[in-house]
Specification:
This protein is mostly helical and 363 residues long. Helix content is 66%, strand content 5%. The strands form two sheets. It has a two-stranded antiparallel sheet. Strands 3-4 form a two-stranded antiparallel sheet. Helix 1 packs across helix 2, helix 1 packs parallel to helix 13 and helix 3 runs antiparallel to helix 5. The longest helix is centred in the N-terminal third of the chain and has 36 residues.
Protein backbone atom coordinates (compact mmCIF):
# COMPACT_ATOMS: atom_id res chain seq x y z
CA UNK A 1 0.00 0.00 0.00
CA UNK A 2 1.18 3.51 -0.80
CA UNK A 3 1.45 6.21 1.84
CA UNK A 4 -1.68 7.87 0.43
CA UNK A 5 -3.69 4.65 0.77
CA UNK A 6 -2.46 4.16 4.35
CA UNK A 7 -3.39 7.76 5.21
CA UNK A 8 -6.85 7.40 3.68
CA UNK A 9 -7.36 4.12 5.56
CA UNK A 10 -6.63 5.81 8.90
CA UNK A 11 -8.88 8.73 7.94
CA UNK A 12 -11.77 6.34 7.24
CA UNK A 13 -11.16 4.46 10.51
CA UNK A 14 -11.11 7.76 12.38
CA UNK A 15 -14.36 8.92 10.75
CA UNK A 16 -16.17 5.69 11.67
CA UNK A 17 -14.81 5.50 15.24
CA UNK A 18 -15.49 9.17 15.95
CA UNK A 19 -18.95 8.93 14.43
CA UNK A 20 -19.90 5.89 16.52
CA UNK A 21 -18.46 7.37 19.74
CA UNK A 22 -20.32 10.64 19.19
CA UNK A 23 -23.50 8.67 18.48
CA UNK A 24 -23.66 7.40 22.08
CA UNK A 25 -24.08 10.76 23.92
CA UNK A 26 -26.32 12.05 21.12
CA UNK A 27 -28.61 9.03 21.46
CA UNK A 28 -28.62 9.37 25.26
CA UNK A 29 -30.07 12.84 24.76
CA UNK A 30 -32.44 11.76 21.98
CA UNK A 31 -33.75 8.82 24.05
CA UNK A 32 -34.60 11.10 26.97
CA UNK A 33 -35.98 14.04 25.07
CA UNK A 34 -37.74 11.76 22.59
CA UNK A 35 -39.47 9.81 25.33
CA UNK A 36 -40.46 13.08 27.00
CA UNK A 37 -41.89 14.37 23.71
CA UNK A 38 -43.92 11.20 23.18
CA UNK A 39 -45.14 11.14 26.80
CA UNK A 40 -45.97 14.87 26.89
CA UNK A 41 -43.41 15.85 29.53
CA UNK A 42 -40.22 17.95 29.60
CA UNK A 43 -37.36 15.50 30.00
CA UNK A 44 -33.83 16.79 30.79
CA UNK A 45 -33.86 20.59 30.58
CA UNK A 46 -31.50 21.90 33.29
CA UNK A 47 -27.98 21.21 32.02
CA UNK A 48 -27.32 23.66 29.20
CA UNK A 49 -29.82 24.94 26.62
CA UNK A 50 -32.61 22.38 26.10
CA UNK A 51 -30.69 19.99 28.36
CA UNK A 52 -28.01 19.42 25.71
CA UNK A 53 -25.24 18.97 28.29
CA UNK A 54 -27.07 16.27 30.22
CA UNK A 55 -25.46 13.49 28.16
CA UNK A 56 -21.99 14.97 28.79
CA UNK A 57 -22.73 14.98 32.53
CA UNK A 58 -23.76 11.32 32.32
CA UNK A 59 -20.48 10.43 30.59
CA UNK A 60 -18.46 12.26 33.26
CA UNK A 61 -20.44 10.50 35.98
CA UNK A 62 -19.75 7.07 34.49
CA UNK A 63 -16.02 7.80 34.12
CA UNK A 64 -15.48 8.96 37.71
CA UNK A 65 -17.92 6.65 39.47
CA UNK A 66 -16.36 3.95 41.65
CA UNK A 67 -15.87 0.76 39.62
CA UNK A 68 -16.09 -2.07 42.12
CA UNK A 69 -16.88 -5.70 41.34
CA UNK A 70 -19.19 -7.45 43.85
CA UNK A 71 -17.51 -10.17 45.90
CA UNK A 72 -19.72 -13.01 44.64
CA UNK A 73 -18.94 -12.66 40.90
CA UNK A 74 -16.44 -14.54 38.74
CA UNK A 75 -14.11 -11.58 38.30
CA UNK A 76 -12.34 -12.64 35.08
CA UNK A 77 -15.47 -13.22 32.98
CA UNK A 78 -17.30 -10.41 34.78
CA UNK A 79 -14.55 -7.99 33.67
CA UNK A 80 -14.19 -9.06 30.02
CA UNK A 81 -17.93 -9.49 29.29
CA UNK A 82 -18.62 -5.77 28.54
CA UNK A 83 -15.66 -5.65 26.15
CA UNK A 84 -16.81 -8.79 24.31
CA UNK A 85 -20.20 -7.10 23.89
CA UNK A 86 -18.91 -3.74 22.63
CA UNK A 87 -15.95 -4.70 20.40
CA UNK A 88 -17.97 -6.73 17.81
CA UNK A 89 -20.43 -3.82 17.59
CA UNK A 90 -17.63 -1.48 16.44
CA UNK A 91 -16.08 -4.12 14.15
CA UNK A 92 -19.34 -4.71 12.28
CA UNK A 93 -19.50 -1.15 10.94
CA UNK A 94 -16.17 -1.66 9.12
CA UNK A 95 -17.84 -3.06 5.98
CA UNK A 96 -20.74 -0.60 5.73
CA UNK A 97 -20.13 1.95 2.92
CA UNK A 98 -21.03 5.50 3.93
CA UNK A 99 -20.28 7.15 0.56
CA UNK A 100 -19.34 6.22 -3.00
CA UNK A 101 -15.82 6.14 -4.40
CA UNK A 102 -13.44 9.04 -5.01
CA UNK A 103 -10.34 9.14 -7.23
CA UNK A 104 -7.39 11.02 -5.67
CA UNK A 105 -4.08 11.19 -7.61
CA UNK A 106 -5.11 8.20 -9.71
CA UNK A 107 -6.05 6.10 -6.64
CA UNK A 108 -9.70 5.05 -6.27
CA UNK A 109 -10.86 5.20 -2.65
CA UNK A 110 -13.96 3.40 -1.40
CA UNK A 111 -15.54 5.01 1.65
CA UNK A 112 -15.75 1.93 3.81
CA UNK A 113 -12.97 0.59 6.00
CA UNK A 114 -12.97 -2.90 4.46
CA UNK A 115 -14.46 -3.56 1.02
CA UNK A 116 -14.85 -7.30 1.61
CA UNK A 117 -16.24 -9.71 -0.98
CA UNK A 118 -18.37 -11.24 1.80
CA UNK A 119 -19.49 -8.03 3.47
CA UNK A 120 -22.99 -9.21 4.42
CA UNK A 121 -21.68 -12.50 5.83
CA UNK A 122 -19.00 -10.63 7.78
CA UNK A 123 -21.66 -8.38 9.35
CA UNK A 124 -23.78 -11.26 10.54
CA UNK A 125 -20.90 -13.45 11.73
CA UNK A 126 -19.20 -10.69 13.75
CA UNK A 127 -22.46 -9.27 15.13
CA UNK A 128 -23.43 -12.72 16.40
CA UNK A 129 -20.33 -12.71 18.67
CA UNK A 130 -21.88 -10.00 20.84
CA UNK A 131 -24.22 -12.52 22.47
CA UNK A 132 -21.23 -14.15 24.16
CA UNK A 133 -20.62 -10.97 26.14
CA UNK A 134 -24.22 -11.02 27.34
CA UNK A 135 -24.03 -14.71 28.28
CA UNK A 136 -20.74 -14.16 30.14
CA UNK A 137 -22.20 -11.18 31.99
CA UNK A 138 -25.26 -13.13 33.11
CA UNK A 139 -23.36 -16.25 34.19
CA UNK A 140 -20.39 -14.54 35.85
CA UNK A 141 -22.65 -12.21 37.88
CA UNK A 142 -23.75 -15.23 39.95
CA UNK A 143 -27.26 -13.78 40.14
CA UNK A 144 -30.41 -15.62 39.11
CA UNK A 145 -31.98 -12.57 37.47
CA UNK A 146 -28.82 -11.89 35.45
CA UNK A 147 -28.65 -15.54 34.40
CA UNK A 148 -32.30 -15.53 33.30
CA UNK A 149 -31.66 -12.40 31.24
CA UNK A 150 -28.64 -14.02 29.58
CA UNK A 151 -30.62 -17.19 28.79
CA UNK A 152 -33.43 -15.14 27.27
CA UNK A 153 -30.97 -13.17 25.18
CA UNK A 154 -29.23 -16.24 23.78
CA UNK A 155 -32.55 -17.91 22.88
CA UNK A 156 -33.93 -14.71 21.36
CA UNK A 157 -30.86 -13.82 19.29
CA UNK A 158 -30.35 -17.35 17.96
CA UNK A 159 -34.03 -17.61 17.01
CA UNK A 160 -34.23 -14.27 15.20
CA UNK A 161 -30.82 -14.63 13.51
CA UNK A 162 -32.42 -17.29 11.30
CA UNK A 163 -35.12 -14.90 10.12
CA UNK A 164 -32.52 -12.14 9.76
CA UNK A 165 -30.46 -14.31 7.43
CA UNK A 166 -33.48 -15.41 5.41
CA UNK A 167 -34.72 -11.82 5.01
CA UNK A 168 -31.74 -10.75 2.87
CA UNK A 169 -31.37 -13.88 0.72
CA UNK A 170 -34.00 -12.55 -1.71
CA UNK A 171 -32.09 -9.27 -1.91
CA UNK A 172 -28.84 -11.09 -2.72
CA UNK A 173 -30.66 -13.15 -5.35
CA UNK A 174 -31.83 -9.96 -7.08
CA UNK A 175 -28.53 -8.04 -6.88
CA UNK A 176 -26.38 -11.19 -7.27
CA UNK A 177 -23.78 -9.99 -4.76
CA UNK A 178 -22.96 -10.12 -1.06
CA UNK A 179 -20.71 -7.04 -1.20
CA UNK A 180 -22.42 -4.15 0.54
CA UNK A 181 -20.70 -1.66 -1.76
CA UNK A 182 -22.09 -3.40 -4.86
CA UNK A 183 -25.59 -3.60 -3.35
CA UNK A 184 -25.56 0.11 -2.49
CA UNK A 185 -24.30 1.04 -5.97
CA UNK A 186 -26.90 -1.17 -7.72
CA UNK A 187 -29.71 0.69 -5.94
CA UNK A 188 -28.87 3.82 -7.93
CA UNK A 189 -30.65 2.35 -10.95
CA UNK A 190 -34.29 3.15 -11.80
CA UNK A 191 -36.87 0.46 -11.07
CA UNK A 192 -39.77 2.10 -12.91
CA UNK A 193 -40.90 5.44 -14.26
CA UNK A 194 -44.30 6.77 -13.21
CA UNK A 195 -44.72 9.93 -15.27
CA UNK A 196 -42.30 12.54 -13.96
CA UNK A 197 -41.53 10.43 -10.87
CA UNK A 198 -38.84 7.75 -11.07
CA UNK A 199 -38.91 4.91 -8.52
CA UNK A 200 -35.33 3.92 -7.58
CA UNK A 201 -34.30 0.29 -7.37
CA UNK A 202 -34.09 0.39 -3.57
CA UNK A 203 -34.29 -2.88 -1.69
CA UNK A 204 -37.50 -1.84 0.05
CA UNK A 205 -39.30 -1.66 -3.32
CA UNK A 206 -38.07 -4.98 -4.68
CA UNK A 207 -38.16 -6.86 -1.35
CA UNK A 208 -40.88 -5.29 0.84
CA UNK A 209 -41.51 -8.51 2.78
CA UNK A 210 -37.77 -8.99 3.27
CA UNK A 211 -37.53 -5.44 4.61
CA UNK A 212 -40.28 -6.03 7.19
CA UNK A 213 -38.66 -9.30 8.30
CA UNK A 214 -35.25 -7.62 8.52
CA UNK A 215 -36.60 -4.66 10.50
CA UNK A 216 -38.46 -6.80 13.06
CA UNK A 217 -35.49 -9.15 13.45
CA UNK A 218 -33.17 -6.20 14.04
CA UNK A 219 -35.30 -5.06 16.97
CA UNK A 220 -34.93 -8.53 18.46
CA UNK A 221 -31.18 -8.70 17.74
CA UNK A 222 -30.52 -5.33 19.41
CA UNK A 223 -32.68 -6.21 22.46
CA UNK A 224 -34.85 -3.14 21.96
CA UNK A 225 -38.51 -2.78 22.82
CA UNK A 226 -40.83 -4.50 22.13
CA UNK A 227 -38.21 -7.29 22.29
CA UNK A 228 -36.15 -6.20 25.32
CA UNK A 229 -36.92 -9.36 27.30
CA UNK A 230 -33.24 -9.91 28.34
CA UNK A 231 -33.41 -6.71 30.41
CA UNK A 232 -37.10 -6.57 31.26
CA UNK A 233 -37.36 -4.37 34.36
CA UNK A 234 -40.75 -5.68 35.46
CA UNK A 235 -39.54 -9.25 36.03
CA UNK A 236 -35.71 -9.21 35.87
CA UNK A 237 -34.96 -5.84 37.51
CA UNK A 238 -32.24 -5.05 34.95
CA UNK A 239 -31.40 -8.38 33.37
CA UNK A 240 -27.93 -9.50 32.40
CA UNK A 241 -26.23 -6.24 33.49
CA UNK A 242 -27.89 -6.14 36.92
CA UNK A 243 -24.60 -6.43 38.85
CA UNK A 244 -22.76 -3.88 36.70
CA UNK A 245 -22.11 -0.23 37.41
CA UNK A 246 -19.85 2.64 36.40
CA UNK A 247 -17.96 2.26 33.09
CA UNK A 248 -18.68 -1.46 32.84
CA UNK A 249 -22.39 -0.71 32.68
CA UNK A 250 -21.64 2.17 30.30
CA UNK A 251 -19.91 -0.27 27.93
CA UNK A 252 -23.09 -2.36 27.71
CA UNK A 253 -25.07 0.81 27.04
CA UNK A 254 -22.51 1.82 24.39
CA UNK A 255 -22.79 -1.62 22.77
CA UNK A 256 -26.58 -1.21 22.54
CA UNK A 257 -26.37 2.20 20.88
CA UNK A 258 -23.59 1.15 18.49
CA UNK A 259 -25.61 -1.95 17.57
CA UNK A 260 -28.52 0.37 16.82
CA UNK A 261 -26.23 2.41 14.56
CA UNK A 262 -25.04 -0.75 12.79
CA UNK A 263 -28.63 -1.95 12.37
CA UNK A 264 -29.66 1.46 11.00
CA UNK A 265 -26.65 1.45 8.66
CA UNK A 266 -27.55 -2.01 7.35
CA UNK A 267 -31.21 -1.06 6.85
CA UNK A 268 -30.07 2.04 4.96
CA UNK A 269 -27.52 0.16 2.84
CA UNK A 270 -29.63 -2.88 2.00
CA UNK A 271 -33.10 -1.38 1.60
CA UNK A 272 -32.89 2.42 1.23
CA UNK A 273 -30.16 3.02 -1.31
CA UNK A 274 -27.25 3.38 1.12
CA UNK A 275 -25.28 6.47 0.11
CA UNK A 276 -27.47 7.17 -2.94
CA UNK A 277 -28.46 10.84 -2.98
CA UNK A 278 -31.71 11.95 -1.39
CA UNK A 279 -34.24 13.78 -3.62
CA UNK A 280 -33.03 17.29 -4.38
CA UNK A 281 -29.40 16.64 -3.47
CA UNK A 282 -28.39 15.98 -7.10
CA UNK A 283 -29.47 19.53 -8.01
CA UNK A 284 -27.39 20.96 -5.15
CA UNK A 285 -24.37 18.90 -6.23
CA UNK A 286 -24.57 20.23 -9.80
CA UNK A 287 -25.02 23.79 -8.50
CA UNK A 288 -21.96 23.64 -6.22
CA UNK A 289 -19.85 21.90 -8.86
CA UNK A 290 -20.77 24.66 -11.31
CA UNK A 291 -19.60 27.31 -8.83
CA UNK A 292 -16.15 25.66 -8.73
CA UNK A 293 -15.73 26.05 -4.96
CA UNK A 294 -13.77 22.78 -4.69
CA UNK A 295 -11.00 21.70 -7.03
CA UNK A 296 -12.16 18.07 -7.13
CA UNK A 297 -15.81 17.86 -8.26
CA UNK A 298 -15.98 14.28 -7.03
CA UNK A 299 -15.41 15.50 -3.47
CA UNK A 300 -18.67 17.49 -3.61
CA UNK A 301 -20.56 14.37 -4.68
CA UNK A 302 -18.95 12.26 -1.92
CA UNK A 303 -19.83 14.85 0.73
CA UNK A 304 -23.48 14.86 -0.28
CA UNK A 305 -23.50 11.05 -0.50
CA UNK A 306 -22.15 10.88 3.05
CA UNK A 307 -24.75 13.43 4.15
CA UNK A 308 -27.53 11.36 2.54
CA UNK A 309 -26.30 8.23 4.33
CA UNK A 310 -26.14 10.00 7.71
CA UNK A 311 -29.66 11.45 7.32
CA UNK A 312 -31.10 8.02 6.50
CA UNK A 313 -29.20 6.43 9.38
CA UNK A 314 -30.38 9.15 11.79
CA UNK A 315 -34.01 8.53 10.79
CA UNK A 316 -33.74 4.83 11.63
CA UNK A 317 -31.98 5.61 14.92
CA UNK A 318 -34.96 7.82 15.80
CA UNK A 319 -37.30 5.06 14.64
CA UNK A 320 -35.80 2.74 17.30
CA UNK A 321 -36.60 5.36 19.96
CA UNK A 322 -40.07 5.99 18.56
CA UNK A 323 -40.99 2.29 18.66
CA UNK A 324 -39.54 1.89 22.17
CA UNK A 325 -41.91 4.45 23.63
CA UNK A 326 -44.91 3.40 21.54
CA UNK A 327 -45.27 -0.40 21.70
CA UNK A 328 -45.58 -2.56 24.84
CA UNK A 329 -43.19 -5.40 25.61
CA UNK A 330 -43.99 -8.90 24.34
CA UNK A 331 -44.22 -11.88 26.67
CA UNK A 332 -41.36 -14.32 26.15
CA UNK A 333 -43.63 -17.07 24.79
CA UNK A 334 -45.16 -14.55 22.35
CA UNK A 335 -41.68 -13.51 21.28
CA UNK A 336 -40.58 -17.07 20.49
CA UNK A 337 -43.87 -18.04 18.83
CA UNK A 338 -43.77 -14.94 16.65
CA UNK A 339 -40.21 -15.70 15.56
CA UNK A 340 -40.65 -19.39 14.80
CA UNK A 341 -44.29 -19.62 13.68
CA UNK A 342 -44.71 -16.34 11.79
CA UNK A 343 -41.43 -14.74 10.71
CA UNK A 344 -39.45 -17.90 9.91
CA UNK A 345 -42.12 -19.37 7.54
CA UNK A 346 -42.58 -15.93 5.94
CA UNK A 347 -38.84 -15.78 5.26
CA UNK A 348 -38.93 -19.14 3.48
CA UNK A 349 -42.00 -18.16 1.44
CA UNK A 350 -40.36 -14.85 0.47
CA UNK A 351 -37.29 -16.67 -0.91
CA UNK A 352 -39.50 -19.06 -2.88
CA UNK A 353 -41.59 -16.25 -4.39
CA UNK A 354 -38.47 -14.21 -5.20
CA UNK A 355 -37.00 -17.19 -7.05
CA UNK A 356 -40.18 -17.53 -9.13
CA UNK A 357 -40.21 -13.79 -9.98
CA UNK A 358 -36.55 -13.91 -11.03
CA UNK A 359 -37.24 -16.98 -13.19
CA UNK A 360 -40.19 -15.21 -14.83
CA UNK A 361 -38.03 -12.14 -15.49
CA UNK A 362 -40.07 -9.82 -13.28
CA UNK A 363 -37.08 -9.01 -11.05
Amino acid sequence: MTSLEVTLMFVKIGIVLLGLLVTVPIMLFVERRGSALIQNRLGPNRMGPFGLFQAACDVIKFIFKEDRAPGHVNKFYYTIAPWIAVIPAFMTFAVIPFAGSLTIDGTETHFQIANLDVGVLYCFSVASLGVYGIIMAGWSSNNKYSLLGALRSSAQMISYELTLGLSIIGLMMVFQSVKLGDIAAAQGETLMQLGPVSIPKWGVFIQPVGFILFLVSMFAETNRLPFDLPEGESELIAGYHLEYGSMRFALFMMAEFVNMAVASGLITTLFFGGWQLLPGFATLVHLIQGMGLLQNDGLVLVLFQGMSFVIKLAFWMWFFVWVRWTLPRFRFDQLMNFGWKVLFPLGLINIFVTGILIYKGVL
